[in-house]
Amino acid sequence: MPFTIAIDGPAASGKGTIARALAERFGFHHLDTGLLYRATGVKGGDPIQAARTLAEADFGRKDLRTAAAGQAASRVAAIPEVRQALLDFQRGFALREPGAVLDGRDIGTVICPTADVKLFVIASDLVRARRRAAELGADVDAMLMQLRERDARDAGRADAPMIRADDAVLLDTSEMSIEDAIKAAVGAVEARLAG
Ligand SMILES: Nc1ncnc2c1ncn2[C@@H]1O[C@H](COP(=O)(O)OP(=O)(O)OP(=O)(O)O)[C@@H](O)[C@H]1O
Ligand SMILES: Nc1ccn([C@@H]2O[C@H](COP(=O)(O)O)[C@@H](O)[C@H]2O)c(=O)n1
Q1: Which amino acids does the record list as binding ATP (predicted)?
Q2: Of 82, 99, 100, 135, which shows the fewest CB atoms inside 10 Å?
């Protein structure tokens, strides 16, 4: 059986950074599931049709990491048919051998409820806004508003809301360096592998 790591949490909390590091460390595949929603959001037209017809070329766009793409993603992510259209691909990815790390909002609750390790990564709103603003060269206050708006939409939607799974390890990276956050995540995985 493949080993599955589910990483969820609010925007810019450090999920992707940790997910990439874990995948490299343990030789697992990595899927940034937010990219599926970003690609759907920026594709235009009917979002349900967009999600159903996502293709390689949709992931080559240069604007997928922008704040606008994040907002567009969170709007289409509230549509149940969009989520349904992206479900099988994510579940299939999670079955890849020898293991897979998926990061998003509903991985530990909906996509991989039986994941071997679940992490819920958080950081204070201001820390997240500062990190994302530095990354995108954007204004911190504007970023703070955008992240809060996106988090509220993601946590408040009826279908697969962003929520910590009961069995997820909470990792608050507000006061942690990237190295320390990765170390803590590696520790959680190694503990599971050992026992
Ligand atoms: N512990 C940390 N200390 C300082 N900076 C960090 C830390 N973790 C992540 N970062 C930085 O914060 C930014 C956001 O991190 P990352 O992209 O991993 O977040 P995310 O949760 O995957 O975001 P998204 O929800 O948009 O996918 C990046 O620029 C990253 O380098
Ligand atoms: N499993 C997921 C992953 C993402 N979303 C939505 O996509 C938006 C963008 O995600 P990022 O991780 O790239 O920031 C996010 O705000 C969610 O609305 C999702 O619903 N489920």
Answers
A1: 9-17
A2: 135
Q: How far is the CA of 121 from the centre of ligand 1 (A)?
A: 10
Pocket of ligand 2 (CB under 6 A): 11, 33-34, 37-38, 70, 73-74, 77, 104-107, 150, 154
Residue-number span of the structural domain to which 168 is assigned? 3-194
Helix/strand number for the chain, H first, E second: 8, 5
pLDDT averaged per 10 residues in sequence order, the chain, 195 residues: 97 98 98 98 97 97 96 98 98 98 98 98 98 96 97 98 98 98 98 92
Count of structural domains within the chain: 1
In a mutational test of the pocket of ligand 2, which residue from 5, 17, 33, 131 has the highest number of ligand atoms less than 8 Å from its CB?
A: 33
Which residues lie closer than 8 Å to 39 by C-beta, 6 or more apart?
A: 54, 58, 59, 61, 64
Alpha carbon of 162 to ligand 2 centroid (Å): 9
The CATH number linked to 35 is 3.40.50.300
